[in-house]
Known about the structure:
Ferredoxins are iron-sulfur proteins that transfer electrons in a wide variety of metabolic reactions. GO terms for molecular function: 3 iron, 4 sulfur cluster binding; electron transfer activity; iron ion binding. Its cofactor is [3Fe-4S] cluster. The chain is α+β, with helices and mostly antiparallel strands. The protein is built from two helices and four strands. The chain has a two-stranded antiparallel sheet with strand order 1-4. Strands 2-3 form a two-stranded antiparallel ribbon.
Amino acid sequence: MHVEVDQPxxxxxxxxxxxxxDVFDQDDDGIVELLDADPSPEHHDDVRESAAVxxxxxxRLAPR
Length: 64
Ligand code: SF4
């Protein structure tokens, strides 16, 4: 799995950080920061859920 985030779309809701704190963080303005673009398999379910619940559709996933 490869992860990309679209920071201009992010509305700083923090959902992704709550669900997958090893993969996503937020900067001082609450905008998403990607910690791990190629997360290990144990994180995949949490990352998929983050992408599904992101209110801005700012998380894109690609298979690897
Ligand atoms: S869930 Fe989406 S909108 Fe919320 S912080 Fe993460 S990327 Fe941004």
